[in-house]
Amino acid sequence: MNDVTAEAMQGGRPRGRPKQRSDAEERQRIVALACELFLDVGYGGTTMDGVAARCGISKKTLYRLFPAKTDLFNAMVADNRRTMLALPRPDDDLPTADALAAIFRLDVEEADNNERLAFIRLAMADSDRYPEIAEAITQEGAEPALRLLTGWMARQQERDVLRPFPPRTAARMLMDMVFGVLVKRFPGDELQTREDRFAHARHCIDVFLNGLAERPAAR
Amino acid sequence: MNDVTAEAMQGGRPRGRPKQRSDAEERQRIVALACELFLDVGYGGTTMDGVAARCGISKKTLYRLFPAKTDLFNAMVADNRRTMLALPRPDDDLPTADALAAIFRLDVEEADNNERLAFIRLAMADSDRYPEIAEAITQEGAEPALRLLTGWMARQQERDVLRPFPPRTAARMLMDMVFGVLVKRFPGDELQTREDRFAHARHCIDVFLNGLAERPAAR
DNA sequence: GCGTTAAGAAACCCAAGAGTTTCCTAATGG
DNA sequence: CCATTAGGAAACTCTTGGGTTTCTTAACGC
Q1: Taking the domain A3-79, which CATH number applies?
Q2: pLDDT in tens, B7-34
Q3: How far is the CA of B29 from the C1' of C26 (A)?
């Protein structure tokens, strides 16, 4: 509808029945809905029939805008370049524990957070099975996050806040610990509520920082 | 062939062509080969055609011994009740870091270890997708392992080797950290060699113990 | 040889899911 | 009214994989 105006400006509307929404708009809408599906049931569990039904459109229209399922997925990844970790403010002089909590975004809203976690879960679960996807999702999500955290580690060591330790190793450790519990949901797992998981995450940060703390005569 | 003798003892061999191997034997052989496949390509990636081909038998025979794919899988899980973690000797007075290295079995042979890790990887990757499997594998593998480690944590705290800390939380932390890197293989991951991964695991144990160490006036 | 059982090869059935096509019904400009 | 484009509904193709069946051949006891 809105593109009618745009079209009109550049030499009259084309013949025939106008599109209900512009392609760009419709793509956005589809990606958003498909995203929910992907995050909910994974790549393999998401069917194009399901996406079409969810969007209230026919497969024909869907395939016109996204010729293949992978295109849809890639569009979602590109769209969803929200970071797993938050960039720390360069001038941050928070206590280290709070700084890490901020980096891991232990403060975001429930809805936002669920989406982010579902994304991470998807990355962990499906990257083995669909190698086509693995690269995109790993390179867009995990690797930048790891680099971000590695940089932070190195900086804290330079400031003598943390004892010397291979920073990338440390970053990986912490990510495995925190995301391990933020993401997994085993059948009979405790740590069901958001509060449980965040408490666990803070425990992880606590032990981690304590284990890496600069001390006069440690161990 | 070997069961000919057994059969003969209990009232003569049955009519017709004898089986090439006894059912029990053949089942064992199939489970062993199927295991490699499951561990290699996952539950979803393993096809019954593939199993039959690998075993050099026909699907008919395969289905006579295992009426469904899940039966085959369950047989493998039951057969494979090898523990993810090693039971610590109750009188262990190793240094704590070595004790943990032993519990995580950072000393086992390469072949054994690959199998164990493949099993853990399978558990982590497929338990979301195939709920039928999730329970078996989680209940047989992850939960006992977590309990084992939790018990060890509690004991070290009683002995004042570790500072007071929710033991199950601590156990989970450490498992996520260690298995996270032992198990994952991302496309562009470093930590490719066994040595790299074990070095990382020891680093994890180091930081973890340091973070939980009993200290006169910690923090 | 004959009845009987084992077992392979290969065709087959069935369901699911990606992707395509056909047919029909809007909506619009001319 | 008519050409033209959008788009839904649904049938269709094709592939994959779990599971079944048919046909044939091999191996035994009698």
Answers
A1: 1.10.10.60
A2: 444 556 677 777 778 889 999 999 999 9
A3: 64
